[in-house]
Fold:
Amino acid sequence: MREAIRRVLIVGAGHSGGAHALALRELGFVGSITLVGHEAHAPYERPSLSKGILQGEERPLPLAEPWRWAEAFDLRLSTLATAIDRVAREVTLCDGRRLPYDALVLATGGRPRSLSVPCAAAVHRLSTLDEARELRGRMVGARSVIVIGGGVIGLEVAASLRAAGLSTTVLEAGPRLLGRNVPPDAAEWIAALHAQEGVAIRTGVAIRAVEGDEGGVTVRLEGGEVLEADLAVLGIGILPRTELAEAAGLPCRDGVLVDAGYASIDDPHVFAIGDVASREGVGRQETWFHAGGSARAAARALLGLPPEPADVPWFWSDQFGRTLRVAGAPMTADTVVPRGAAFSLHLRYGRIVGAAGLDSPRDFAIARRLIAAEARLDAGRAAEPGTDLRKAVAA
Amino acid sequence: MESQGWENQAGTWRRVVDAAEILEDEPLAVEADGRKIALYRVDGDVHATDNVCTHAYALLSDGLLEGCQIECPLHNARFDVRTGRALSSPAERDLRTYPVRVVDGGVEILLPG
Structure:
């Protein structure tokens, strides 16, 4: 954008929206920054919703101290944006007010995906702090839970509830756990961990209906089997909230389509960041790392600053006191090199493209750097846990 | 004795570990007076900081030390172990550092009070 930007409007006051606002100030932007969010809470980090909050922590990590929002930003909570007028460059809010912008940043995230079969309203979902607190409240006195979905969120919730003493069953439709974003060997480590902690894991399960109310839930499976529990939680992924963007004619395909600087491919005045952004050639990334990284990258692009070198995408998942970390694109590998019992390097044509590990944070940090450098690895040396990974780079 | 000019500061020097136990590239976790402290060796010198990241709960001693920078194992925040300065997001606050001296092969750190 060549003209001066004086007013930035961010729709979505979650992790990414909040991080974007902070990044703009950090980079010296002195114009107005308005954040519009549908939740009642100032921007916070979401990882603790499936862990700390369910284990009794009062609140998640805030993106910034509360006084900072009042001091340097116009933060409007419990507010929905209802329409974008790209010609007038205005956004309409649920109370009818219209906010003009020079740059609009969509950070609307996603909403939990629903089952394609009938599902009772009593089934918990977990995308906001209020939903996490509601589940926490309902855990008191509950003895059993069925978690629908064997992905990262489902398994974290299962681990939290199991640790709280509930009899816990995980139902996964796919043939294995974590099928979308974790390589098979690492998914096995997690399955073994859950089995050891007494979680019942069932894969390849087709659900016919989920019935019930606050008093208890019944899950009916294809084939007639019936499962019952005091609680049920649904965690089968999210759908990007693209309605506003689509209604405004912005190109979307599983997310708002953006370029490398997170600008809409059709409108240089509109950006999309976080879970709702789909980068050309990369796609969507639903991670803590991307929420913050895309927020900062978009802030630089919006202010006309040169991009910083891109970091290797990665995510972590805390379960039963262990931490799974996955970096790069391990699912594209042609060779897997195990390094000890629960760490592996993923190679494609001899170069490292991914890594996964249960704990071993230092090996993981080195692996991330090797992935960024597209290093060629000596598989034999990399397989020895006692050898510094940096010394496994092939000449 | 390797002196770093801390002699006049208030506090108590505590011996925490043999200097030989702190290797380059390998931060070491210690506890003293109920504080979690990380020790690092950079170009031969030993440095001490709080071991808990200022962003979220994680032990920096589990992280990767590159030169004078420690990277938090949880969210990749980086700090300069010599000054405690926060160098990258998500950390916004600097780390507390502690004066260090090596006496008779033992690492001593100056604890307040």
Notes: The interface with chain B takes residues 19, 23, 45, 61, 64, 288-289, 292, 296, 311, 316, 361-362, 364-366, 388 of chain A (CB under 8 Å).
